[in-house]
Amino acid sequence: TNEAAQTLDGWYALHDFRYIDWNAWKQADDGHKKEALQDLNTIVQGWEQAQTEKVGSHAMYYIVGQKADLMFMNLRESMDQLGELETALNQSAIAPFLIPAYSYVSVVELSNYMAKPGSDPMENPEVVARLKPVLPKSKHICFYPMNKKRDGQDNWYMLSMDERRSMMRSHGLIGRSYAGKVKQIITGSVGFDDWEWGVTLFADDPLQFKKLVYEMRFDEVSARYGEFGEFFVGNLVDREGIEHLLK
Ligand code: 76R
């Protein structure tokens, strides 16, 4: 058996993608609309408070294309809290207008491929900040799930630790060349969802997503071992932005 990479696991993550039911919204009377927008406000204010209290973080994006209209990304200390948060949204007056489009359950993850031996990573405030991150307010988001291949000769999980580490070093070097342009959060989802990781990228210039993902396709760990799910890309919105959209 090969040595599994050790992971550091941080906040639990729910990426919740919704369609806006425009027909239902247009047919709703003003009272219902007002109530729906009030509930949305209350919910997002709760998320903002969790972020202020440093017990979670959230991000809201308008998804471009037909896969969804909105994405709510939330980080919390526990799976229980994520479940409660999801239920609160589903029980609110905005819920009938927000049809589930896709969701992803995972946990913020750092692996030890690049860790310095002998040091306790949890003593490092930078590591802790990456495990419990305040999500950036970048203008754009890109999310996709992925696997590492287990297919005949191309089986990531049959490689030795040294082979994987050297490939991850090359991966990290490409990633780091996008420092200041793209911020990435890797969330692990083995045992939680249909793919092995969620990749969430933040950038002010969406073209940098394309450049980064394309460049990585030529790097062995992606070229040989990467398998990818659906891609979602979107634009930052706030509470007022969603309200404006629905007006
Ligand atoms: O955490 C670190 O910065 C150390 C180096 C590093 C690790 C261990 C790193 C750096 N990543 C790591 C792990 Mn990554 N990453 C992806 C994708 O589209 C594709 O081809 C792949 C999707 C992108 C775009 C990306 C970006 N990374 C991982 C893992 C877990 C692997 C495992 O455990 O087997 C996955 C699935 C994954 C995928 N990576 C970086 C980036 C970027 C931008 C960096 C540099 C981050 C920085 O230095 O700030």
UniProtKB/TrEMBL annotation:
Catalytic activity: harderoheme III + H2O2 + H(+) = heme b + CO2 + 2 H2O; Fe-coproporphyrin III + H2O2 + H(+) = harderoheme III + CO2 + 2 H2O; Fe-coproporphyrin III + 2 H2O2 + 2 H(+) = heme b + 2 CO2 + 4 H2O
Keyword Metal-binding: yes
Note on how the cofactor is bound: Fe-coproporphyrin III acts as both substrate and redox cofactor.
Keywords linked to the UniProt accession: Heme, Heme biosynthesis, Iron, Metal-binding, Oxidoreductase
Transmembrane domains' residue ranges: none
EC number: 1.3.98.5
Keyword match Nucleotidyltransferase: no
One term of GO molecular function: oxidoreductase activity
Residues that hold Fe-coproporphyrin III according to the record: 130, 144-148, 171, 184, 222
Protein family per UniProt: Belongs to the ChdC family. Type 1 subfamily.
Protein name per its UniProtKB record: Coproheme decarboxylase
Annotated organism of origin: Marinicrinis lubricantis
